[in-house]
Structure formats: structure tokens, C-alpha cells
UniProtKB/TrEMBL annotation:
UniProt source species: Aeromicrobium tamlense
InterPro entries documented for this protein: AAA+_ATPase, ABC_transporter-like_ATP-bd, ABC_transporter-like_CS, ABC_transporter_ATP-binding, P-loop_NTPase
Name of the protein in its database record: ABC-2 type transport system ATP-binding protein
Cellular localization per UniProt: Cell membrane
PROSITE patterns: ABC_TRANSPORTER_1, ABC_TRANSPORTER_2
Alphabetical list of Gene3D superfamilies matching this protein: P-loop containing nucleotide triphosphate hydrolases
Membrane topology field: Peripheral membrane protein
Pfam families: ABC_tran
GO MF term set: ATP binding
SMART domains per UniProt: AAA
Coiled coil: none
Domain ABC transporter: 9-234
Domain of life: Bacteria
Keywords linked to the UniProt accession: Antibiotic resistance, ATP-binding, Nucleotide-binding, Transport
Source taxonomy: Bacteria, Bacillati, Actinomycetota, Actinomycetes, Propionibacteriales
Length: 314
């Protein structure tokens, strides 16, 4: 039986250890049917360990993991045909050609997808006769993606699918994954490309030191951080300007360096409106004015500079 809320993956209190090192600690995750869930995080945050547990490649040391309502380790034989898995390192035989590899994989799969279209779309059609060992790293990555999706999986796990791909191949891989999602496949991916998460993900979770530090839609996650307004002032003095801006805008923080001002604000639209009205009324000129919402990359940087130690103490 599947869990509530259309969850195809439900993880509660997952803990994974290597010896006395805890790589994943008390992690909760919910992935809903048909969504693309991006697991982000610093190197060593625990993404691959979490993915391996979801894929049934390693058992949880504590906690409960359900994929399509099943235990990925205990129910592996029943679950595996419904999953697509692309690992960081592929382990298939390099002596076969691309075509032979795809055919071999397809022969082991019930109802495999047609592959010519996938080879074409991922730029491997003209490599069909090439031995896998002779492929470049990026070409192997694209072959891995095809093999992981041959069985039309209900849930597809992609561990850094676009690592090492050139920009054009990355775009092709993104379109390929987006089309699978449009066809109803639930996708969980890890990536270090934040623009990949921004382009594809319905839900992002940023992991740090074995835990999810923040999660939600990209706009939810980005919305948790203040926006920034920057400008250069002409003829306004430091202390007076500081006082006045705090009254006008009520910023989260304010920094004035020489004549450059940076305001971090909770509500960009209303703060900007108040600032511009104030400048108009007093005839102030705001030069090189720049206003921007926080980016995923800023959130990522904040998370990676934070520490779990405080939480551990609580
Ligand atoms: N086999 C292992 N033995 C001991 N420690 C391990 C082992 N595999 C991973 N770790 C440690 O567990 C932590 C989490 O590793 P994991 O590979 O899950 O992180 P990650 O988020 O996928 O990192 P990356 O982005 O670098 O791939 C790291 O500190 C890593 O050194």
C-alpha cells in the first residue's frame, strides 16, 4: 500500500553510518507522484548515501524508507523492475558497442522502450557501432541515462546525470528528463548544477552534513532569504543616510561602503517602492540601482556555511 498524499517515496528518520561516522542523520523526505525532486548539497552532504538507500543498494541503519510503498532492500525483487537507476559510476562492459549494450539491456527488461529515438535525442545515434570503452565521459553519461530509462520506470533515480556533459548535451539530457516527467515518471536527482534544479525541479532539498537544511519549491526556498537592493548615492553622507534609510525601508540589514549602499529586505516590491518615492520626494539620484531576489546559489552558500552543531546541541 502506498503512503498518504500521493507520496511515492516516504522516508522517516533515516540514519546511515560508515563505522562511527554518521553520513545521514534522522532524515525525512517525501517525494510525490510525478514530481521532479532535486537533492542538492555540498560535497559529502550525504546525497549519494541517501540515494543508495532509496535504490535499495544499502540498508538504513535506522529509520523507515518506503518507495512505491515497499522497503527497497526487503522488497528489492518486486521493486527493482519499476525503478530506473543511473549511478555516478556505471559498471557495464566496455567491450560491447553502444548498440549491443542497449540491446543486451533491453533483452533483460520487460517491455523495453524503443531506443532509436533516445539514441538520436541524446546524440548517440552515430555512435551506435562504437565500443563503449571508446566513448568519451560525457557520451557514457548519456548512454547511462538511456539504459536507466529503458524499462519505462515509474521512479527514476539520477545521481549527477549531467556531470561532465557539455552545455549542449546537458540541455539535451534536461529535455529528455523533462519529457519523461511529462509522461508521468517521478524523478529524483542529485546535482551540483543549481541551474539544473532551477530549470527542472518541482521540489528542491538542500542537504548539509547529513540533514535537509531547507526544502520546498525553488521559489519557496529562495523566498526564505532576503532580497537585495543596491545603489550608489550622490552627495549623501554616511550616518545620516544610514538613519534615514532605516526609517524609509526598514531593512533586514544595511551596509554602506564608501558611497555604495546595500539593503537586504524582506519584501522587495514594497521596499523598492518606498525607496523610489523617498528618492523622488527629496530629489536624490540613485545610480547603478540594482534590485534582485535571492538566488538558489545564495541560499546554497548560506546553507553550506551553516553548521549542524547548534542543532545537535538542542
Ligand atoms: N564507503 C564509505 N566509507 C566511509 N565514509 C563514506 C563512505 N561513503 C561515503 N562516506 C562519507 O559519507 C559522507 C557522505 O557521502 P556521500 O557520498 O553520500 O555525499 P554526497 O553528498 O553524495 O557527496 P558528493 O557531492 O561529493 O558526491 C561523506 O563524508 C563521505 O566521506
Amino acid at each position: 500500500m502506498e503512503t498518504t498524499d500521493n507520496a511515492v517515496i516516504d522516508v522517516r528518520g533515516l540514519t546511515c553510518t560508515y563505522g562511527d561516522f554518521t553520513a545521514v542523520r534522522d532524515l525525512d523526505l517525501t517525494v510525490r507522484r510525478g514530481e521532479l525532486f532535486a537533492l542538492l548539497g555540498t560535497n559529502g552532504a550525504g546525497k549519494t548515501t541517501t540515494m543508495e538507500t532509496l535504490e535499495g543498494h544499502r540498508a538504513a541503519d535506522a529509520g523507515r524508507v518506503r518507495v512505491l510503498g515497499m522497503d527497497p532492500v526487503a522488497d528489492r525483487a518486486r521493486l527493482r523492475p519499476r525503478l530506473g537507476i543511473m549511478l555516478q559510476e556505471s559498471g557495464f562492459a566496455g567491450d560491447l558497442t553502444v548498440r549491443e549494450t542497449v540491446d543486451l539491456w533491453a533483452s533483460l527488461t520487460t517491455n523495453p522502450r524503443r531506443t532509436d529515438d533516445a539514441l538520436e535525442r541524446l546524440g548517440l545515434a552515430d555512435r551506435a557501432g562504437t565500443r563503449v570503452v571508446q566513448l568519451s565521459g560525457g557520451q557514457r553519461r548519456r548512454l547511462d541515462l538511456i539504459l536507466a530509462t529503458l524499462n519505462n520506470p515509474e521512479v527514476l533515480f539520477l545521481d549527477e546525470p549531467s556531470a561532465g556533459l557539455d552545455p549542449e548535451s546537458r540541455e539535451a539530457a534536461w529535455r529528455f528528463v523533462a519529457d519523461l516527467k511529462a509522461g508521468g515518471t517521478t524523478v529524483v536527482l542529485t546535482t551540483h548544477y543549481l541551474e539544473e534544479a532551477e530549470a527542472l525541479a518541482d521540489h528542491v532539498a538542500i542537504m548539509h552534513e547529513g540533514r535537509v537544511a531547507t526544502e520546498g519549491s525553488v521559489s519557496d526556498v529562495v523566498g526564505t532569504a532576503p532580497a537585495a537592493i543596491e545603489f550608489t548615492t550622490v552627495g549623501l553622507a554616511g550616518a545620516d543616510l544610514d538613519r534615514e534609510l532605516r526609517t524609509v525601508v526598514d531593512p533586514v540589514s544595511l551596509r554602506i561602503t564608501a558611497d555604495r549602499v546595500r539593503l537586504d529586505v524582506a519584501d522587495l516590491q514594497s521596499s523598492l517602492g518606498r525607496l523610489l518615492r523617498w528618492a523622488d520626494q527629496h530629489g536624490h539620484r540613485l545610480e547603478r540601482l540594482n534590485a534582485s531576489e535571492a538566488s538558489l546559489s545564495e541560499i546554497f552558500t548560506r546553507v553550506s556555511h551553516s553548521s549542524n552543531r547548534l542543532e545537535d546541541a538542542s
